[in-house]
Design a protein that fits this description.
Blueprint lengths: L6 E5 L4 H15 L4 E5 L20 H16 L3 E4 L12 H15 L3 E5 L7 H15 L8 E5 L5 H5 L4 E4 L4 H10 L1 H16 L3 H8 E6 L4
Parallel strand pairs: 1-2, 1-4, 2-3, 4-5
Antiparallel strand pairs: 5-7, 6-7
Helix pairs in contact: 1-6, 2-6, 3-4
């Protein structure tokens, strides 16, 4: 993993960072690299309310806000931006508004690396709209000055259509931090973590591979 000047992570929901890139974030933090996480919504329309339930539709936004802060703290992120969009509505936002917001973050922070979702291959409409806005913002920058753009894809057809990821980080050295970040999003992850605990005890190869490897596709502009 290269030492970066500044890493900007942009996702729409609390916990988007935990599953796919938290080990990468923790690794950059351990290298002394500043990391900014811009999270567009509080995930207030999430279906999970804890297991057993401890949240409801009224309380979930505040709970997920606290969980997001706890996850950022676990990862060592000192610059957490909560951008105030409503969950499940990002796809309906004006495209220029979203693009200009991403551009303003990039201009302010001057990152050498931007991480987000790969549009077309990230399943959820909020993921797609966020990733597309990030791509548009980076594309507006002169090629010589662009930060690297490394994107997360997990649709069923992503490898078939994009090819194998060109970046796979072995984050096993910080896997405990990754698990702490996932645990921080308790309302969404408690049941999953219970099921995962047995698989980790058994050293299930598929579960270990999911925890220890984080994959990215470098976006190639035409």
């Amino acid at each position: 993993m290269e030492k970066e000047r500044h890493v900007l992570v942009i996702f729409p929901h609390p916990d988007d960072e935990a599953f796919g890139v938290s080990g990468t974030i923790a690794s950059h933090v351990n290298m002394g690299t500043p990391v900014t996480y811009a999270c567009l919504t509080l995930g207030e329309m999430g279906r999970n309310m804890g297991n057993p339930p401890f949240a409801n539709r009224e309380t979930l936004p505040a709970i997920r806000k606290k969980e997001l802060k706890d996850a950022a703290r676990a990862l060592g992120i000192n610059d957490l931006r909560m951008l105030g969009f409503r969950d499940k509505t990002v796809e309906f936002e004006d495209e220029d508004k979203l693009t200009n917001l991403m551009s303003s973050l990039i201009t302010e922070l001057n990152p050498s690396l931007v991480i987000s979702f790969y549009p077309g291959y990230s399943v959820h409409p909020d993921h797609e709209a966020t990733g597309a806005a990030v791509v548009r913002a980076v594309e507006k920058i002169a090629a010589a000055d662009r930060p690297k753009l490394q994107l997360v894809a997990f649709s069923r057809n992503c490898v078939e259509e994009l090819g194998q990821p060109d970046i796979v980080h072995d984050i096993s050295a910080v896997a405990d931090i990754k698990l702490d970040a996932i645990k921080a999003h308790r309302s969404q992850t408690e049941l999953m973590l219970e099921e995962m605990a047995d698989k980790l005890k058994e050293k299930d190869p598929q579960t270990l591979a999911w925890i220890n490897n984080e994959r990215f596709w470098t976006y190639k502009f035409s």
